[in-house]
């Protein structure tokens, strides 16, 4: 077996366009977020930052700017900061005391709603296999704090936040 000959010259690494699109998308999103944040501080009116960001995106879209956003990039750039912020706001002592309730809601409710919903979908539409019906029901099961909060009585924000964090992490 022959060994490759080393000449000592480095082969230049060419950055392909496919590799650069996610990087440029992330940089563009960070730049627009930073600019709208600066504009929000400089404006004499108290306009909420999300409204300024929506307006900036609408103006860019009307100007013909197109920003490709794949689902993988969305999961990488947007979901982790939201999960971190929500998890950061959870009081750890209270979450530790309520861990049984939180885990039963986060995991048990998802499994229960997926299985019951899956059997219901399978019974209504017999052409859908049971496994596919359960997968569809699990995708449709409630995963956010609003839907969990509607199932619980008011005033239990720690349970709501922790349950939604666990569920989003579970689904990712």
Secondary-structure map:
Layout: H1 17-42, H2 49-62, H3 71-77, H4 79-88, H5 92-97, H6 99-124, H7 130-140, H8 145-151, H9 157-171
Q: How would the global form be characterised?
A: extended
Largest beta sheet, briefly?
none
Helix and strand content put the structural class at: mainly alpha
Mean pLDDT: 75
Question: How would you explain this protein's 3D organization?
Answer:
The protein is mostly helical and 172 residues long. Helices cover 71% and strands 0% of the residues. The protein has nine helices and no strands. It has helices at residues 17-42, 49-62, 71-77, 79-88, 92-97, 99-124, 130-140, 145-151, 157-171. The chain is extended and about 55 Å long. The two termini are 46 Å apart. The model has no long low-confidence stretch (mean pLDDT 75).
Could you name the key traits of this structure?
172 residues; mainly alpha; extended
What is the compact description of this entry?
By secondary structure, the chain is mostly helical.
């Amino acid at each position: 077996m022959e060994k490759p000959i080393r000449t000592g010259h480095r082969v230049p690494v060419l950055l392909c366009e496919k590799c650069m699109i996610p990087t440029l998308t992330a940089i563009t999103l960070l730049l627009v977020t930073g600019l709208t944040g600066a504009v929000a501080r400089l404006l004499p009116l108290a306009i909420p930052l999300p409204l300024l960001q929506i307006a900036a995106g609408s103006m860019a879209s009307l100007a013909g700017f197109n920003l490709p956003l794949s689902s993988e990039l969305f999961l990488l750039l947007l979901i982790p900061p939201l999960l971190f912020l929500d998890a950061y706001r959870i009081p750890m002592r209270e979450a530790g005391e309520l861990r049984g309730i939180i885990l039963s809601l986060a995991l048990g409710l998802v499994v229960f709603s997926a299985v019951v919903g899956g059997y219901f979908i399978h019974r209504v539409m017999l052409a859908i296999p049971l496994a596919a019906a359960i997968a569809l029901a699990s995708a449709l099961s409630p995963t956010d704090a609003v839907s969990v909060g509607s199932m619980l009585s008011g005033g239990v924000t720690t349970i709501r936040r922790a349950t939604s964090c666990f569920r989003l992490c579970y689904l990712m």
